[in-house]
Amino acid sequence: MTSTTSPEPSLARRLGLAGIPTIGVAFGFARYGSGLFLPELRAEFDLSVTQLGAISSGTYAGYLGALVTVGLLAGRVGPRALVVAAGATATAGMAVVAFATGPGLLIAGLVLAGASSGFAWAPYSDAADLLLPQGPRERVLARLPAGTAFAVAVAGPLALLTQGGAWRTAWLLFAVTGLVVTVYNARVLPAGAGPARRETLEGRPGRRWRRAALPLHLTAFVYGLAGAVYWLFAVAAVTDAAGSGSATAPLFWTLIGLAGTAGVMTGHVLARWGLRRAHTVLVGMFAAAIALLGLGAGTLVAAGLSAVLYGASFMAISGLLAVWSHQVSPDRPTVGFSAVLLVLGLGAVTGPAALGTVAGRYGLPAALSATAAITALSLAFRPPSRG
Fold first, then answer.
1. Own/partner long-range contacts of 157-164 (Cβ < 8 Å, ≥24 apart)
2. Is the pLDDT at 203 greater than 70, yes or no?
3. Residues 6+ apart with CB under 8 A from 143
4. What's the distance, CA 339 to chain centroid?
5. DSSP state of 381
C-alpha cells in the first residue's frame, strides 16, 4: 500500500535541525563570541584599542564580503555549497582563534569566523523554497534565528567555566561543533539552485519592488544599528553601573540567550498575528529593552528585564525579517534576503561608530537612550496589512 503521509513535516524538521544549529554556530559562537571572551583575549594578547577596532571592522568587513558573494553565487551553486562555506569558515576561524599565538593570528581567525554569518543565513531562504510549500516554509524561516539564542545561552555558562587561560578550550569546542553541523548540512540540504521561479509584482522588479522593499530595508537598517550598539555596550553599561564582578557578562549573556530561545515560536506568532501586528509588538519590545538599559542599567531588575525583552525581540525580529523578505522577493529568495542582510550589516557598521561618539561625549546611558529613540522610529516602517 502506498503511504499517503505528507513528507512536508519530515522535510521541515530536517531543515530546522540543519539551520538552527548553523545559525547558532555562525552568529552565537563565531560572530558574537569574541565580545563574551573579550577580557580573556585582551589579557592574553595585550590588545590595544586600535587592534580592538581592527577586529570589529574586520569581522563586519568579512560579513559584508560574504553577503556579496552569496548574492552573486546563489542562483548558480544552490544553498548547500553556501552553507558548507559558512560552516567551513566558522570552523576554521574558530580553530585559528583557539590555537592563535599572537594578535595577528587572533584577528585573522576572528575575521574568518565572522565571515561565516554572511554565508550562513540567506541560503536557507532558497532551501526552504525548494523543499517546502508556503506555510511550513514561513514557520521554518522564522524559527531559524533562534539558533543564535541557543548558542548564546550555551556560551555564557561556558565562559564562566573557562575563565582565564582555559578560554581556548571553549573556542576549540566551538570549532568541533561547527564541523559536526557542517557535515550534517552537507547531507541534508539540496545541492542545486533549482528551476527558475515565479516573478513578483506582476513581473516588474523595478519601481514597485523598490517601493515594497523600502520599509523592509529601513527596518533592517535600524535593527542592525540598534542590535550592534546593544551587543557592544550592554555588558559594559551593566557592569559600570552596578559595579559587579567578572561573572556579570556571562550571566547577562546567558539571560539574553535563554529569553531568545522563545524565538522558536516566531513562526506561530507571525501566522497568528500577521507581519504588521507582530512588527509593532516586537519593535516596541526591542526599543523598550534598549531604553531600560539606558535609563536603569544600575538596577538589577531593569537590567534583567532589558535582557529578557532584548533576547526575545531580537531573535523574533530576525525571523520576521526573513519571512517578510521572502514575501517581497519570492522569485529570488536568497538574493532578496542577502540584500536585507547587507542593509542590516550597514546599520551594524554605522551604529557603534555613531553611538560610540555619543557615549564618549555624554556617557553610555545617553547613547543607549538615543539608540532606543532611533529604534522606536522604525515602528513607522510597517509591513503591508495583508500578505
1. 157/250, 157/254, 159/36, 159/37, 159/249, 159/250, 159/253, 160/247, 160/250, 160/251, 163/40, 163/246, 164/40
2. no
3. 16, 19, 20, 263, 264, 266, 267, 319
4. 15
5. S
Q: Classify the C-alpha dihedral 197-63-121-175 as positive or negative.
A: positive
Tell me how far apart the alpha carbons of residues 337 and 126 are, in angstroms, rounded to a whole number: 10
Single out the residue of 90, 109, 89 nearest to residue 41, CA to CA: 109
Closest CA to 112 of 42, 183, 30: 30
> Residues 237-296: pLDDT tens digits?
777 665 555 567 778 888 998 998 888 888 888 888 999 999 999 999 999 999 998 887
Q: What are phi and psi of 198, to 5 degrees?
A: -65, 155
Q: Write the pLDDT tens digit of every residue in 36-89.
A: 787 788 788 887 756 766 677 677 778 888 988 888 887 788 899 999 999 999
Sequence length of the chain is 387
Q: What is the DSSP string of 225-293?
A: HHHHHHHHHHHHHHHHHHT--TTHHHHHHHHHHHHHGGGGGHHHHHHHH-HHHHHHHHHHHHHHHHHHH
Angle between helices 248-260 and 207-242 (to 10 degrees): 140
**Domains (range + CATH), the chain:** 10-195+205-380 (1.20.1250.20)
Q: Rg of the chain's alpha carbons, rounded to an integer?
A: 20
Letter for the amino acid at 71? G
Q: Cα(21)–Cα(151) distance, rounded to whole angstroms?
A: 8
Q: Give the per-residue pLDDT at 370.
A: 94
CA distance 365 to 168: 33
Helix (H) or strand (E) holding 34: helix 33-36
Residue 164 carries which side chain, given as an amino acid letter? G
Contacts of 375 (CB under 8 A, 6+ apart): 222, 226, 283, 286, 287, 290
Higher pLDDT, 386 or 265: 265
